[in-house]
């Protein structure tokens, strides 16, 4: 008889694992068209559900009369904002999810935060490779230091 562990027998665990392996084996790679369509669907969903920091940044751009588009697809990535007049992409980084260094030391970062930081670097490289400028704004800054973010973008865009 199979030995019980955490509510499942070893036989049940083995069956479950085999099922997972078969699922992975039957997954096929998406075609470029399917990838593009999925990316566009995700961008559309995200544009309708801006986070509080993203809404604040959008408000700032409207106050400054700067045209901006939200959830811009460049290459295989979605960027939070695009300023067409300046060929600039903006990412609004959540303090927790992106490991704001003002709040977390490198030793305090968890796996998700480390993965997000790596992804951020890759997106920066991709944006620059396509000829875009890229700026990142921390959640804390847009929520608590709004005037300094406004001053930063005034210098960047209107100077």
Structure description:
The protein has about 160 residues and is an alpha+beta fold. It has 2 domains: about 10-50, no CATH class; about 50-159, Endonuclease, Chain A. It contains 6 helices and 6 strands; from the N terminus they run ββαααβββαβαα. It has helices spanning about 10-25, 30-45, 50-65, 110-130, 140-145, 145-159; strands spanning about 5, 10, 70-75, 75-85, 90-95, 135-140. The strands form 2 sheets. The chain has a 4-stranded mixed β-sheet, with helices on both faces. A two-stranded antiparallel ribbon has the order 1-2. It is globular. The N and C termini lie far apart (about 75 Å). The mean pLDDT is about 90.
Describe this structure in a few short sentences.
This protein has 159 residues and is an alpha+beta fold. 52% of the residues lie in helices and 18% in strands.
The CATH C-level name of the largest domain is Alpha Beta
- How is the quaternary structure best described? single chain
Give me the Rg, rounded. 21 Å
The main sheet orders its strands as: 3-4-5-6
Provide the CATH architecture of the largest domain: 3-Layer(aba) Sandwich
Helix content: 40-55%
Strand content: 15-25%
Would you tell me the structural class of the helices and strands? alpha+beta
What global shape is seen? globular
CATH fold annotation of the largest domain = Endonuclease, Chain A
N- to C-terminal distance: 77 Å
CATH homologous superfamily of the largest domain, by name? Answer: VSR Endonuclease
Main beta sheet strand tally, sense and closure: 4 strands, mixed
Task: Tell me the count of domains.
Answer: 2
Mean of residue pLDDT values:
89
Q: What are the segments in which pLDDT stays under 50 over at least 5 consecutive residues?
A: none
Helix count equals 6
SSE series? EEHHHEEEHEHH
